[in-house]
Amino acid sequence: MPQSEEEPKLFDQCNVCIVCTDSLPLEAAEQLAAVIEECGGEPSIHHSTPTKDDTTACSHIISNTINFETYDLASKALIPVVKPSWVHTSLQKRKLANPRQHSPDPRLFLNDVVVTCGDIPEGDKDAIIGGVVAKGGLYSSRMSALVTHLVDLTVTSDKARLAQTKKLRVKIILPHWFDDCLKLGQRIDERPYILPDPEILRADPDDPIRGFGNKGLAGASTPEPAALPTPINGVEGTNQRNVFDGKCIMLSPDLSIGTHLLESIEAVVKRGGATMTGNVAEADWIICRFREGFVYRTASRLGKEVGNLAWLYSLMTFNEYTRPLSRMLHYPVSRAPIPGFEGLKISLSNYVGEARIYLENLIAAAGGECTKTLKQENTHLITAHGSSEKCTAAREWGLQVVNHLWLEDSYANWKMQPVSDPRYNHFPSRTNLGDVAGQKMLDKDVLEKNFFPSEDTEQPSPSPPVLQDHPSNVPIMPPPEKKQKADKKADKKAPEADQGTPKASGKGRKAAEKNAQTPARSRLIPDEMDIDTPSSTNSRKSKEAAIAHLHELAPDIALYEKEKKRVGGVIHGGRRKSDEDRVRENPKKRRSVEPEAESEEEQVNDAKRPKKSRPAISMHLLITGYQKWVGKGNEKKEDADRRHLRDLGIMVVQDARRCTHMAAPSILRTTKFVNALAYAPLIISTDFITRCLEEDELLNPADFKLNDKAAEAKFGFSLAKATKKAKDNKNKMLHGFRIYCVEDVRGGFDAFKSIVEANGGECLIFRGRLALTNPPRREESDDEDDMDDYTPGRHDVFLLSSAETKHARLWPRFRQVAGDIKRAPKIVRVDWLLDMAMSQELKSADEYELTEDMVGKDDQ
């Protein structure tokens, strides 16, 4: 860009750090640096994380990701972190662009969207523009090459035609996509919303919802990985820098890992250029299991990078730095549950693969219980979309049905979120929310407030900081005459201290003594030490003084740790074998020392345990009237039988729309039986179920066709003919019918409503207070196909009722409002509907019609 020497250049006074990553390689970084330097800026390229001095000295940081170690420092110092597009946009505008619209922060999930609007209402246009800009995007009033999304309702608008003519790389998208993104607070896939043939408009509600995959959860679905990973991005023989190069790493004693695994981890990180330490003050990265103890709190207050073993393994696997706060389960977990989560029983629906494992482990980390099956004792159902058998059952049972955002927000805020928030009850029609699971980040301020507060809440914080009750003031091994007094004081002050870290085996203990110079938990050093986070000059001086003091105390602390691990335990000098209050350890019962930790591990292991392979589903079976499952106390048998049937390839379903087969002991007038007839399944006897279970084999269902001549004669229809007619009707027998129903009809309005809708009609409650509306006209083709025996008058409107006095009071009002819309009122018994649904043929309403002289004589 030519500029005169007199006028200031574009990037004058800009000191720009460029951070190289996999998505911003060295070659691209050098090109950016050349452009910035030509326009008066001072660029510097960093192959790894810029140092703290480099970060605070620059005016801008260019990175495609927030995953570099000094990101938090840059944020606190208000130094903009921008993507390379900030440079290009600034050059085009000839002025520095707004950094917010080029931020790599995933919380600004529309930051790479440049939107323009086509022929949509002005109100929708304003709402979309406001939402996009608020979430980091840009708005353009005209179509240009920079536009990424055109919001429109058709592809025939002027802007859409211009985009197609010029072959611009723009997505023409329905406004529904922005609405769903903003409601969820996360970006979802655009593909179901893209014109000219958007899936959300053409798909049937019963069509399965496909997922597009979730690669972001790779290596981040469990806080306790089972084995050391195999790196997939090796750096040997290349110019790529190892993520561990120059780092000093400390493994906290609370990891309780064995000698062999410890040696393997040390070998990997040392091969990558890192060193190991047992001193928290020297370490750059600290690996902990729990959010507690001296090591965790001290490292967090000193601003160290704190992650768990899963985070360390992820770095080994991908050789790319990620912040442990950017993944929920890359950060140490808490032994205590989120307030309110204890006792919750949560089931999952429609989540698969890594997303399901991740949510199972997140539920356990939050303090709830994840159940594999849904029962009435459950409290919540977390589902990826709103249509499934579990969702239907959960709503019928009054359970809370939410998406995974409720769980993630509760975990990130360490506070149970209200399920009434619309964000947690929104399910986009053609989106599987499992695709966006795991994008929520942890909040450092929330963690500090709940797990490592800056100030000691039990003791005043003197200034300048003095570490009261520190080992420099209290001897590690007090004289014998003072031992008993110290014992009593310590027991009152910290009764749980010995339970902070599980005891290791002999070999593991020696390794821990060799590599760890700080105790996992210490009665002598308060958990809430007066060490502030680096937010001011005074706090930095306090931190440096504390670090220097810790260096001096390292040998004493190591000795204390060694003494504490002696058999029987040590409290300020230890107990004698003759002490009356000495707890004698039973090696056989050592596993019961930490039942909570053991329970968590069992949950994680259950999630990891490979499931037994099952055969493919060969039939979807709807069951009604199976006597072996009927009655109180048979729930366990039903669950066991259902699992057994699934192992044979039979999926038991509750929704008639999904069934390919229906099993019943005889012809019944149950809701399930009548509804299923409309979908023409193969109807078989429940003997098929019994025989399959007894013989542990999938038998031929055609050998068990239901034969019930007595019921056919009673109800006046043929089951075989009804099934054939149902196939011809294709669920449209009642298409165009609007049938009203009194509210408290015997059998329940919901049952008759489901029967009417299964056959293509519409059913509404009539309470006598509202006027009727004109029913839709039936199509000619439907009349010809469906009305072989009887064609009801198009001016008929029907009311399902009984001959009870309270129902008869509504009849005059029904006749009146039917006349108002010029329709002939037909007040009929429910048998009219049931007989049509059972026989799958339309019948005259005359023989079922109710009149005033029948009131009190007919009980239904």
Automatic annotation (TrEMBL):
<feature type="domain" description="BRCT">
    <location>
        <begin position="611"/>
        <end position="706"/>
    </location>
</feature>
<dbReference type="InterPro" id="IPR001357">
    <property type="entry name" value="BRCT_dom"/>
</dbReference>
<feature type="compositionally biased region" description="Acidic residues">
    <location>
        <begin position="595"/>
        <end position="604"/>
    </location>
</feature>
<dbReference type="Pfam" id="PF12738">
    <property type="entry name" value="PTCB-BRCT"/>
</dbReference>
<feature type="compositionally biased region" description="Basic and acidic residues">
    <location>
        <begin position="576"/>
        <end position="586"/>
    </location>
</feature>
<dbReference type="Pfam" id="PF16770">
    <property type="entry name" value="RTT107_BRCT_5"/>
</dbReference>
<dbReference type="InterPro" id="IPR053036">
    <property type="entry name" value="CellCycle_DNARepair_Reg"/>
</dbReference>
<dbReference type="GO" id="GO:0005634">
    <property type="term" value="C:nucleus"/>
</dbReference>
<dbReference type="GO" id="GO:0035361">
    <property type="term" value="C:Cul8-RING ubiquitin ligase complex"/>
</dbReference>
<dbReference type="GO" id="GO:0006302">
    <property type="term" value="P:double-strand break repair"/>
</dbReference>
<feature type="domain" description="BRCT">
    <location>
        <begin position="104"/>
        <end position="195"/>
    </location>
</feature>
<dbReference type="GO" id="GO:1990683">
    <property type="term" value="P:DNA double-strand break attachment to nuclear envelope"/>
</dbReference>
<dbReference type="Pfam" id="PF00533">
    <property type="entry name" value="BRCT"/>
</dbReference>
<feature type="domain" description="BRCT">
    <location>
        <begin position="341"/>
        <end position="424"/>
    </location>
</feature>
<feature type="region of interest" description="Disordered">
    <location>
        <begin position="570"/>
        <end position="614"/>
    </location>
</feature>
<protein>
    <recommendedName>
        <fullName>BRCT domain-containing protein</fullName>
    </recommendedName>
</protein>
<feature type="region of interest" description="Disordered">
    <location>
        <begin position="452"/>
        <end position="544"/>
    </location>
</feature>
<feature type="domain" description="BRCT">
    <location>
        <begin position="6"/>
        <end position="104"/>
    </location>
</feature>
<dbReference type="InterPro" id="IPR036420">
    <property type="entry name" value="BRCT_dom_sf"/>
</dbReference>
<feature type="compositionally biased region" description="Basic and acidic residues">
    <location>
        <begin position="480"/>
        <end position="496"/>
    </location>
</feature>
